[in-house]
Task: inverse folding
């Protein structure tokens, strides 16, 4: 069971070597991450994009392009389609966003002929290693689905639980979060949290334990949970997955962690036939490499 | 201008000595905070509650009751009414929750004869001193108003701006937050953020600068804000006040900071004729003392 990003890297090194296909690869921060991922034995890469520009950046960052396959396609949309088709055709294991806008990147993922559709809705998961928590935390959805319906939340849980399983957590604890830990009919997300908990008990959501609604302290702080007397709960400060009521709550917590702490993190897009990596420009190289590692682990699990 | 809790404590010491009236004071964590606040010269206190039990706890924590006024009222509701009336009658400057449920405590605040009503709606503000931010951050509303309407948000801003002014910030920057920094008609909170910004430009919300919608990185991280090219914005990673779209987003961010970091914080209830302190059982003594200090500063400003 991977309890830290160091564990995840060890888990990656035990897998068969994975290959990431980069859409519109002529981006310095992305190539820096690809270079580091290669050096650490995390993943090989196929770089699809403007070869001239890729060469220029590679020279700048002392990256030996002989170690990588480069496919010249200066047109942005065509480069994305080519890059995603390599994953679709199993010539690569993961798909990564280069210097292309998110909308066009997602369009390539959803392409009916060469994309990564599975019929399942896509969702995003951000994985964090916090200082005072002895296991990884999976935050979802902090970037993709604005106002998830109950059905969306079921799918988000299923997508995220697959990622947990890939990371070696056989039965992750999923906490549907709210400001409060009791059901309040005036707060839709607390009602839905209870419904999700019941669906889990009745076997409609499997491979995990769902217990909500939960406030964040009861979800992640065992001391606070015990202090408040969390009787009859299956999660007592030991949640693995934090399910947010909507994208505002999720994104604000995510950015709070990224911009006020130094905790390690990485994220991927799930619900696709192969994991997709769409990091933000402001993510550190370390975060991008963590995301590639996470994608490699999920790719390994999907391949089994 | 107070930029840290140390600054706030210095500011308190420069004020005339304030007195806090504690409702149902027979609570060990609350008395520990009251004792420490007295020792540090932050505030004196009147302890209203079960005198026998107060004496027992005082003995336990080595607290000299000769330093405090104690009013014996074993009945919980009566003790709250007595304690709040002391503030109402200006015999104390701030009102603090002891071992009484939040609902009854709020009921005493809203009491028409002896309470602290002003006609303004109440709201909550949490103040944080973050490691990599060189000024205090005012988070609102993370605990009181579940789904604030536009009108509620105007009032929340007004209440919070008063607290900022009391802390010596003449023109705080207020960021109405969302997951995104652009107006999206499908996301009500982004539309309201724009309206609040316009109301500020048109002079309907004064004493501050409002600029939203803003994502959290653009609000608090100058580097990220510049990286993303925040042109035409008045807030570039230098927000003082973070206005949350709803209580779930606010409370989850607040608890994320409290339970995953060691950043100093304190909070008070505002919109009352005198500041009210209702800390949570899981708050540290330090946090409770910070809240008393913050209340003292606001009491000083309200008294002018």
Result:
């Amino acid at each position: 069971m991977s309890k830290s990003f160091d564990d995840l890297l060890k888990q990656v090194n035990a897998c068969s070597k994975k290959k990431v296909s980069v859409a519109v690869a002529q981006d310095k921060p992305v190539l820096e991450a690809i270079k580091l991922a290669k050096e650490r034995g995390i993943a090989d890469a196929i770089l699809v994009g403007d070869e001239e520009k890729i060469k220029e950046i590679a020279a700048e960052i002392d990256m030996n392009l002989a170690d990588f396959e480069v496919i010249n396609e200066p047109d942005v949309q065509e480069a994305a389609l080519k890059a995603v088709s390599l994953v679709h055709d199993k010539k690569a294991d993961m798909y990564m966003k280069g210097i292309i806008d998110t909308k066009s990147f997602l369009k390539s993922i959803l392409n009916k002929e060469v994309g990564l559709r599975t019929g399942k809705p896509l969702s995003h998961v951000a994985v964090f290693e916090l200082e005072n928590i002895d296991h990884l935390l999976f935050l979802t959805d902090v970037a993709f689905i604005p106002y998830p319906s109950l059905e969306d939340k079921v799918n988000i849980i299923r997508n995220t639980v697959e990622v947990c399983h890939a990371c070696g957590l056989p039965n992750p604890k999923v906490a549907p979060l709210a400001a409060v830990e009791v059901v309040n009919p005036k707060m839709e997300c607390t009602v839905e949290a209870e419904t999700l908990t019941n669906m889990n008990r009745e076997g409609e959501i499997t491979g995990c334990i769902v217990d909500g609604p939960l406030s964040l302290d009861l979800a992640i702080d065992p001391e606070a949970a015990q202090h408040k007397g969390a009787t009859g709960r299956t999660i007592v400060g030991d949640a693995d997955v934090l399910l947010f009521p909507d994208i505002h709550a999720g994104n604000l917590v995510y950015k709070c962690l990224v911009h006020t702490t130094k905790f390690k993190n990485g994220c991927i897009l799930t619900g696709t036939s192969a994991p997709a990596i769409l990091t933000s420009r402001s993510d550190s190289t370390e975060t991008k490499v963590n995301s590639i590692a996470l994608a490699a682990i999920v790719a390994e699990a999907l391949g089994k």
